[in-house]
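Annex B, item 7. Sequence and structure tokens for protein A, then protein B.
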Amino acid sequence: MNESPTGWRKSSYSAQQVTCVEVGRIEGDWRKSSRSHQISACVEVAPTSYGAAVRDSKDRDAGYFTTTADQWRLFVTAVKAGRFEV
């Protein structure tokens, strides 16, 4: 993917550098899957302007990864189809 998703921006300190840190914004609250019930060790997801952010509920300080809307939709479809052990 050559193009940055909507919502990402370079630091103002990066000037014309190609390799620099970009920051994005999580646009909603983190939530656990409705299928996790009372389990405390699960995955949490939050919407972003371009897809979703995903983190481990046991270790929220460890960070998160992001996906595009298409990647998230394909993943959820695969889970619902039983393609993974969950």
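Protein B:
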Amino acid sequence: MNNPATISFTLQGRERSARWSSANDVPPPPRIVTVDDALGADEAYRLAAAGTGMLFTGDYHNARQLLGAIARRIPDGSKAKPKRNAAVPTTAERFYKYRQARTQRARVLAMLLVPVEPGPLVALRRAPDVSKAWLNAFGPVAEPTVVSLQELLGAIGAQQWRATGLHVPALGAKIHPHYGTFAPVRGEYLDLVARAELPGTSRAFDIGTGTGVLAAILAQRGVGQVIGTDSQSRAVDCANATLEELGLSGGARAIVQDMFPAGRADVVVCNPPWLPGTPQTLLDYAVYDPKSAMLRAFLKGLPAHLSEGGQGWLVISDLAERLGLRTREQLLGWIEEAGLVVCGRDDTVPSHGRAADPTDPFHAERSAEVTSLWKLEAR
């Protein structure tokens, strides 16, 4: 558990305390009240919107229904009427408002809490066995603990993903993403790496390896030594498990490292988060890159880690450009400032459901999105 805070609350007239658990490092609510099956949805939403945590003590399935009822009461902001004579917002402004609404929604939903006892087990009537999901997501429970139901459900869902696995056509095999590690559900960017001509097969680096899927593709293509790096230990554990399950761990491994490992490589691939923005959850770190920091760090450090004739492969979408969050000129400027030249580019279009969903508030931008593998060489 990342947050060792202790919370206090009153239960059956007695002061109690428990450990606060949040893998996302969300602080506990400043005020917590105990509630049960008698709590109505309107009152629950009022408390949650005011930032009051509600520790549920009734039936587990009722708690899930209450969470859904709270979610239905949260305004999504999409139906708000613009003020008279107000300027038409830019796409970037609309996206920022959308993100703010999503963040507020997450904060409200996080106010419904459930107790967890050593075992681990959820201390509610009719609660399912969550021990495997909990241990894989949060670790052992040695004392009474409280967690948001929303985060617990995320851990349960992640365990289902891990057990079932995700088939990756570019690998011809399944991988099993761990909790907090982004599942590569968008296969088009994997195909770009799988078909790009390799400048050499001695050594490759995969920066920000995540599940290890790109490292696995490079190893499967015959690169003799592949090193994946990630700043998150849970991602490194997942990547090494992926490589071992695929029988590739003899020549490929992942290590805990922020950006580049020591040495140089024929291929240095990076699929950074595609959108500038502040991550709010573990999974957000695979989507949002504050001020494009990882992208810029990759470009700046790349020349010092390329072998003679080696290439950097930047795998990135132009969605940030279409949303007005970054320009193509900025990207090309960062490439030039790093002492790099573009020696090739391979483009593809997305095949995921959101690109074809006309109800998505950013359907126009998503449907026009292009994902590219930029081949970069040192000048």
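Comment on protein B: The first strand starts at residue 6 and ends at 11.
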